[in-house]
Amino acid sequence: STMEETDREAVATAVQRVAGMLQRPDQLDKVEQYRRREARKKASVEARLKVQSWKNLSVCCQAMLRTLNLTGNEELRKNHLHVTCREVVGNLLEYLKIIFMKLFQNNSYSCSPAFCLVLLLSFPEIVRETHDLIERGELLQAHRKLMDLEFSRDNLMYEQYRMDSKNTHDMNLIHTYFGDTQKLSEELAKQLWMVVQRSLVTVRRDPTLLVSVVRIIDREEKIDRRMLDRKKQTGFIPPGRPKKWKEKMFNILERTVSTRIEGTQADTRESDKMWLVRHLEIIRKYVVDDLLVAKTLLDQCFPPHYDIFNRLLNMYHQALATRMQELAAEDLEANEIVSLLTWVLNTYTSAEMMGNSELSPEVDVNSLDALISQNVVDQLLSKYMSTLTSNIIGWLRKALETDKKDWIKETEPEADQDGYYQTTLPAIVFQMFEQNLQVAAQINEDLKTKVLVLCLQQMNSFLTRYKDEAQLYKEDHLKNRQYPQCYVQYMIAVINNCQTFKESIISLKRKYLKSDMEDTLSISHANMDATLDIIAKEGCSSLLDEVFMDLEPHLNELMTKKWLMGSNAVGTICVTVEDYFNDFAKIKKPYKKTMTLEAHRRVVVEYIRAIMLKRISFKNAEERKEGAERMIKEAEQFRFLFKKLAAGSGEDTEGLCDIIEAIAEVIKLTDPSLLYLEVSTLVSKYPDIRDDHIAALLTVRGDASRDMKQTIIETLDQGPSQPNPNYVPIFKEITVPTLTVPKLLK
């Protein structure tokens, strides 16, 4: 029969094995050892076969029982046969448990036989219950059941390992039977990580849930340690160990923090100019809120050795550093560079963020590392400065172009609160400088100084362009004096702007420059002041040119027959000057004072020039007297006019009109023998009078012979001079026409 054949095969195999073991005489001593080993193997195989067959029977019984219990038909459930079947199967299961218990006792497994038996027989049911608990969120209970399952699996595997560590087939049998345990562990972990991801929200809504999760992770850590210790001693470690759930938890927290920081950028530059400011503000708010929650609530849900607050603080710092480096690498605009650097260098450690009093003493701003390296900061600042330089050049050019358009308007410029004409140029320029300096000051003192130096350097170049444009404005006007209509008023505004620029530069330096840096800018400041003085001086000069172009026909009437007969040229000159000076009243003080002095001087120069042109030569003493008195009267008119114009300036300008009177005295003199004395007095007062001036003066007088002129001039050269110390030479500006030989006709 088949059984007999099998027995024969088994005996043959055994004989072969024994023959293989006993090939040398010395092996006979080990016969007892071989016998014991074979007996152990046989017992192990028999036990496994029994376990497997009983287990299969157990699973069948459980399935039958479940089917019988779940029958939907109530009548059938009460049926006598149905009830009997349920009882039989139930009893069979109980019987199986007793058999298993005996089996384990006989095979001396180290784990509690009863415990392992119950688990083995109830395994599918426990798996299902554990799965349901996980789904319902009862994580602690689910974990307890999972630990029980893993405990029995691990102990069975350990026993198998102890008995026969090389028997991988049996190990795999146990592993396969408990296969669902690994899936349950993964399912539970998935739930834990969801809670960990939302820990900052969970801790406010349901702190108990978070505490449960942390307890589970902590238990798993302890089991990990126990299993690793056993591995050191025995070499055995169960599948899936170490789980390293604590490490995974921190990795998930780290990823969550990074995602939270990155996810705060809601806008792009295209959709919102202020995208970066918004992004940084949202980050600031989130970080502060999160860390406050971590400190006040989260810290209590974790064991102290987890050091959860400091770990989280470090994660936020790292995530911020990464994000700031990403932003720094983008192609940022000047204002965006400032926003980023202000946030990184100042906001981050300020009371609005990490320096928040509620976060201390745990957060010490002095021990926080920099979010971006000094090298990156320097690169950003360098880029900012070069962008700002080109921006300022562009802004200044645009501001000047806009201002020039105003110069040709047909309406007068606006006046300031004191009634002085001005344009908006200085205000626009310095408002722009102020804005950039305030921005730079947010970052640091050093940048503020650099920006101030840059502003003043660009201001220097700008003023040179301003000077050139004012000159072109004047030249264009001279081509057609009817255009622009408000030339005088806008030239006054340009002059006044010079004073405003001067004051604004001083104010800017006072506000933004440390006193110890003053020297570094003194040269450029002096240059700017000099340029502004030139613009103002040339402006004033061009305005006086306007006056004297209008006075020209009247000046040409002086010292002519018509004048002697009683023309009103000087009256018209005075009215015209006064009329212009009504407009010049809108010039600011330092320049207006200069203007009045210069106008006075030029009137007197032009008057003396008219005398030196020799347009008239008096015929007799009567004419000389009449002419001289007229000159004295007109000098008085000028004196009155300029006293009125210089009212309040405290300037003594009478000395200029005295020159006209002194010349009149020479002309008026009736006794020719005293002429030398009169002329020498004139020369001692005004030592820049040249010989040709005296000759012209004697010609106008009309009664001195050539020899007499020669004698007077030669004698004068030896005389002493006693000029007034305040006297500013006036005659050197006046040329005397000489008789020229007409060119021969070609």
From TrEMBL:
The subcellular localization recorded is:
Cell projection, Growth cone; Cytoplasm, Perinuclear region; Golgi apparatus; Midbody
Domain of life per record = Eukaryota
For the keyword Protein transport, the answer is: yes
Please name the Pfam families in this protein's record. Sec6
InterPro entries (alphabetical) = EXOC3/Sec6 (IPR010326), EXOC3/Sec6_C (IPR042532)
A Gene Ontology biological process in which this protein takes part is: exocyst localization
Q: Name one GO cellular component term.
A: exocyst
Show the GO MF annotations: SNARE binding
Alphabetized, the UniProt keywords read: Acetylation, Cell projection, Cytoplasm, Exocytosis, Golgi apparatus, Protein transport, Transport
What role does it play? Component of the exocyst complex involved in the docking of exocytic vesicles with fusion sites on the plasma membrane.
Q: How does the record describe its quaternary structure?
A: The exocyst complex is composed of EXOC1, EXOC2, EXOC3, EXOC4, EXOC5, EXOC6, EXOC7 and EXOC8. Interacts with EXOC3L1. Interacts with BIRC6/bruce. Interacts with MYRIP. Interacts with SLC6A9.
Q: Report the sequence similarity comment from the record.
A: Belongs to the SEC6 family.
The protein depicted here goes by the name: Exocyst complex component 3
Q: Which gene specifies this protein's sequence?
A: Exoc3
